[in-house]
TrEMBL record:
InterPro entries in alphabetical order: AbiEi_N (IPR025159), WH-like_DNA-bd_sf (IPR036388), WH_DNA-bd_sf (IPR036390)
Residue stretches making up the AbiEi antitoxin N-terminal domain: 34-84
Domain of life: Archaea
Native species: Methanoculleus bourgensis (strain ATCC 43281 / DSM 3045 / OCM 15 / MS2) (Methanogenium bourgense)
Protein name: Transcriptional regulator
One Pfam entry name: AbiEi_4
Length: 281
């Protein structure tokens, strides 16, 4: 955090037995000052950040944070990570936009897959899970924060591209761009509600066909090229993509059983029904 909290551990008086701010003895203003100083850098902070800025021992901070949480001053997002609650807000009623919270769960990160499809208006379905793409390791990849489910999807660094910055509640949040969102959904249909949602997105006239083709080749998954090639032709907007040279057949939708007709051109098993109007692009 850029600005420095001037209140230091050695300067705080009236500590109780465990060395925690005792607000009954007049240290309420100290608590407010600390929270205001942290809030200048953002509403989400970590125990480690608070320790660096205040020089208060971590064991003491843990008790302080527990008390602040009981009083509705902060809300725990996950272990060691907290949201500052505005003083005028009612306890248990305040939260941030789910994309802002998602951006704090892991770094680097990008809102992706079904969540990005919905954000860009490429699906009518409203996902009940927020999907977050990252290259980082995170032990807990599925978690619930303030009643919202989050799914952290780790990808190889070479698949982590195609972003745009969006301002949400005065916070910069990274979201995969329209074309990368579609390509990601073709790469991992299980995080997009199946291949059908990606197919519907291809009907959108605002998609950049050149970027779609380029991203499909960049992501390094031949199945993506085949799926995009087949679906784009079904939609009447064929793209400049190489035909497969391998003789093996892949599934159009890996979330569905291996049954259906074979498409010899793209060497796909058409194992789900895709209803796209021709020339929709």
């Amino acid at each position: 955090m850029g600005s420095e909290i001037t209140i230091k551990y050695t300067k705080i008086n009236n500590f109780d037995k465990v060395g925690v701010l005792n607000e009954d003895h007049g240290d309420k203003q100290v608590t407010i000052d600390i929270l205001k100083a942290i809030a200048r850098e953002g509403q989400v902070f970590t125990l480690e950040q608070l320790h660096r800025q205040t020089e208060i021992p971590k064991n003491v901070l843990s008790v302080m944070l527990s008390r602040w949480e009981d009083r509705g001053l902060v809300e725990r997002i996950e272990r060691g990570k907290y949201l500052i609650i505005p003083l005028e807000s009612e306890k248990g009623k305040y939260t941030l936009h789910e994309f802002v919270i998602a951006s704090h769960l892991v770094q680097p990160s990008a809102i992706a897959y079904w969540s990005a499809l919905h954000y860009h208006g490429l699906t009518e379905q409203i996902p009940i899970t927020v999907f977050v793409q990252t290259t980082a390791r995170k032990k807990n990849r599925q978690l619930e924060v303030f009643g919202v489910d989050y799914r952290i999807v780790r990808v190889k660094p070479e698949k982590f591209f195609g972003f745009k910055k969006e301002w949400i509640e005065e916070t910069s949040v990274t979201v995969t761009d329209r074309e990368k969102t579609v390509i990601d959904c073709l790469d991992r249909p299980e995080y997009a509600g199946g291949i059908v949602e990606a197919a519907k997105a291809l009907e959108n006239a605002s998609l950049d066909r050149e970027n779609l083709s380029r991203y499909a080749l960049m992501i390094g998954n031949n199945a993506v090229v085949r799926r995009l090639g087949y679906l784009s032709e079904q939609a009447g907007v064929p793209l400049d993509l190489p035909l497969p040279t391998s003789r093996n057949y892949l599934l159009l939708d890996p979330t569905m059983p291996r049954q259906g007709e074979n498409d010899p051109r793209w060497r796909l098993v058409i194992n789900t029904e895709i209803a796209l109007p021709e020339g929709s692009g």
